[in-house]
User: Fold this.
Amino acid sequence: MSATEPIQITPAAEAPQVLAPVTDSVFAARARRFEQLAAGHSLGDWLRFLAALTRAQHDALQSMPTPALPDAEELALAREHGMPPLPAQSWPRPAVWREVLNTICAQLAPDAPEIARKDLIRLQSLPSEALEALAARVLNTELHGEDAALLPYVAAALQVLWTAAAARLDGEIAALDEVHGVCPCCGSLPVASVVRSSGAANLRYLHCSLCNTEWNLVRVKCASCAATAGISYRHIEGGILAHLPPEAVCAETCDTCKSYLKIIYQEKGGVDAVADDLATLALDILVDEAGYSRSGPNLLLVPSV
Assistant:
């Protein structure tokens, strides 16, 4: 009997713990995904509008000035204390985000539905103080109340700013050992998680709702409270998307904290955390009715209540 060559197994510790966004593709690929998901979907018009919004984000990102980053001393201090280097609620955001918002609104308005067009035009006329107040609501995930319909556009501009900054920090972002459920770059909550089928295959990454950074979280673990017991996966029998199996997008529910977050499986056809999440809102409704609360926001969605 001949000896068998040993199988080389890459330890999970060698897999990238944090994945910075790629500015050339993150919004462009998302726009294409929205277009794919819109075909034959009951919310097709809305998904196509979101595709246009995401294309506007891509265009704005390519043309915006390079944002200033914290200096070396501030970055070292963040690493030393295990803190995000670009915290959403306290980083002094550059005013360029308002220029990005104006660019997005101007690109979207001509072909937008009438109600959306009015909101986009209104945003372009608001003073800086009012825009900054709306930004503070988004960054504090206060997504209800007066002018809630304006918040997804404000969020879209803020996503562009934080994504540009996060991409420049590639290699400087370290996983947060103590707080696994928030983004290691900006401290925001995840919009969903993605189980990758290439590169870091079969590893699960949480996807930031603001800066598009991804960070590794082991499978079968609550993204909110870190419980490993009482975790289950729910999907709609028969599926939501005609071209995907039902298991491509599931709700990972936790009986410990009664929260849930979507988990998207690339090998089953899921592609983008933001787009696939919004195309499966029917799943949110059923999981909400079962008594679970969503643990992370999708900033492009206006909550119904």
